[in-house]
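Narrative of activities, Objective 1.

The group set out to show that a structural description can be obtained from nothing but a protein's sequence at a throughput compatible with the screening campaign. Below is one input-output pair from the validation batch, recorded exactly as produced.
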Amino acid sequence: MSRSILVVEDDRDIAHLIELNLRDVCDTVDMAHDGVTGLARAESQAYDLIILDLRLPGLDGLELCRQLRGKSNHTPILMLTAKSSELDRVLGLEMGADDYLTKPFSIMELIARVRAILRRAQIHRASSIPSRGEILRAGQLIVDTQKRQVTLETIPVELTAKEFDLLAHFIMHPGRVYTRLQLLDTVWGYGHDGYEHTVNSHINRLRAKIETNPAAPRYILTVWGVGYKFADLDTAAD
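Output recorded for this entry:
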């Protein structure tokens, strides 16, 4: 299978190092050294993955990510961030980035993350979410898995790509309890200790968007000491 990756990184030495080591993972590696060029390339060609530095000239990585997701571009994004920029990492994940690495990072870890994201994307393409085209209902919540649209009491709910994937996974398995590591492995494609906050952040964002009272959720429930589950509300599929 032919794979292509776009690397948007203004540090040319780092970009070149990434490019050299990605040759064993994919067939094509395209480069951009500023945000404006990176956005143009991401919009003009279909990539399997975008490796995106957040600190870019012209257009920063957060804005680039926001614009892509706002145009329904769901290409997986691996962010590269400074070690001290925790807020940027959280914002990036909430805008729809799939994973992040902090600088300096090891090439072995980078390649492992890239392989995990590509593997997850391949599984996702072959999975039931895009192909079944189901309309799933739970209470007043409706999830159209083909159009990737969500409504709550007939009102559209705007979700990031990863928020949608997480919600679709939950609603397709009502009542099943998942640990944070299981959700990382299933939805994000990796299960590394220390990244459970990624799940927590997305759960909080989902609750803020679909729950009448996020402090007392009806849909996504906390199972204390274990993880989360989607409430069994006689979920139906059309």
